[in-house]
Amino acid sequence: LLKLEESQAAAAVGQIELARIWSGVLGHYGIGAGQILVTLQDTEERRRYLNARSTISKLLEWRAVPVINENDTVATNEIRYGDNDRLAARVATMTSADLLILLSDIDGLYTAPPSANPNAKLIPVVESVTADIEAMAGAAESELSRGGMRTKIEAAKIATSAGTHMLIASGKIEHPLQAIADGGPCTWFLTPANPVTARKRWIAGSLEPKGTLTIDAGAVAALRAGKSLLPAGVIRVEGQFARGDAVVVRGPDTHEIGRGLIAYDAEDADRIKGRSSSDAAQILGISGRAEMIHRDDLVVGGPRGTDSAK
Questions:
Q1: Which of 28, 235, 238, 290 is within CB 3.0–4.6 Å of 212 for a Cys-Cys bond?
Q2: In terms of C-beta density within 10 A (0-12 exposed, 13-18 middle, 19 or more buried), how is residue 64 classed?
Q3: Is 266 helix (H, G, I), strand (E, B) or coil?
Q4: Which residues form a coiled coil (predicted)?
Q5: In the chain, domain spans
Q6: 170 or 50, higher pLDDT
């Protein structure tokens, strides 16, 4: 086994080569590639999570494929994923992906490790990751992989809990994605929710609000019509919060309208309240988001609300 510093040095060399290969292959089709190296903290700390998500979104907007890997050059054993399966699941949920595909050395989840049990049967669909499903996963069988079916099951739990379907299929065949589309063998892990509803349920019930925004009647009507909250509609800003924190949104009568993830910290939000989005950019000296809270980050309640967190 390599020492930690030897593994990190090898990763530094390999990351450049991997990026070069992806850039060359995608460039042949007129598609760009952008390398993103993440650590565990980048998906667990809210501000870094938002920065990573914004970078991925911008790359896709530029028609560049994000090539994402764990930053093994700085990650230590104590603060690392250690496998790409769970990392892929966290990135999929970060971007509200509909589907995560994991390519493996076998074509799905079997009732037992097929290399050890010739009677093992492929499970085509898993509707819920139960203890029985977890028991079917064996350990990693490849020396080239830190993962295995166990980490793929863990990835399925992460993905499906956030509203992302997951699929395991063989990556040892040519054109594996086409094979999946043609009905080839694989295992689907289904989720009962979609990424938007799962995310909004999380916003509504799982986060402790750090502050309050009071908005005018026009903004209340806009939110209940499914619009985003713009700075112009905000009357008052209360509390100490950072970008990405959950805040309560109240109408002029102080009744709660909803909850959402704020795009600005408390100081900047207070400076741009009541101003147009173009004015906000001039006041702050940077071109931030036009919305104080984007509609995808907002759960609206009340009798005429458009969202439900139940």
A1: 238
A2: middle
A3: helix
A4: none
A5: 1-80, 95-192, 207-300
A6: 170
Torsion angles phi and psi, residue 63, rounded to 5: 60, 45
Q: Is the pLDDT of residue 141 over 80?
A: no
Question: Domain spanning 95-192 has what CATH number?
Answer: 3.40.1160.10
Query: Side chain identity at 144, as an amino acid letter?
Result: L
Residue 226 has pLDDT above 70, yes or no: yes
Domain 207-300 has CATH 2.30.36.70: no
Residue closest to 140 by CA, chosen among 115, 123, 166, 122: 115
- pLDDT at residue 201 above 90? no
Q: Please write the tens of the pLDDT for every residue from 164-180.
A: 999 999 999 999 999 99
Number of H helices, E strands in the chain: 11, 11
In sequence order, what are the residues at sequence separation of 6 or more whose Cβ sits closer than 8 angstroms to the Cβ of residue 303?
none
Residue among 83, 72, 78, 63 nearest 18 (CA): 72
